Amino acid sequence: DAKTTQPPSMDCAEGRAANLPCNHSTISGNEYVYWYRQIHSQGPQYIIHGLKNNETNEMASLIITEDRKSSTLILPHATLRDTAVYYCIVRVALYNQGGKLIFGQGTELSVKP
Amino acid sequence: GAVVSQHPSWVICKSGTSVKIECRSLDFQATTMFWYRQFPKQSLMLMATSNEGSKATYEQGVEKDKFLINHASLTLSTLTVTSAHPEDSSFYICSARVDGGVSGELFFGEGSRLTVL
After folding, report:
1. Is pLDDT of A96 > 60?
2. Res. B26: pLDDT tops 80
């Protein structure tokens, strides 16, 4: 699976958009970009995933560059409850190859009032 | 989304005893579940893949005789920490993949915090 690079920490003002970057320059053509987050002392929560096209759901938007070497997770209106560690994971579709997820260090997002 | 439940949420035990942690998929079947361990200020580390009706597959460096995994049904996997010692104190998290699911995500339990005295 391709390796990802994320900033260790970021701050965001409450109500503003939080833009979390992820570099995955060695991504292969059949690898997806998955985003999860982990609020302190809880299990990880799925946010969104995508292959090539930008994706949006009720939680966030995922913007993938045309060359697929990087992506950005956007929380449009961050709240204090969005404070968490955000993990960007690149791998083949979860229903292939056993489906296991390998977590990196992630980005610790702090949303401040 | 689908719900994965872990029990107990936290447990304190004496050194040398064994502790069992349960992971249940409440509203879906999961042939495959995964167990992770997380130390403070660190990321999740995959310990093993649990497969219903067969032996678990352990990641490199994880002692299979110390961390016993049983996946006896399509909705239940258990992790038993045998002869626990203080260094086994950690946050244990399970996840499950929906059988037949096409959305691609895994669902995680809330975690079980083990403290070994």
Report:
1. no
2. yes
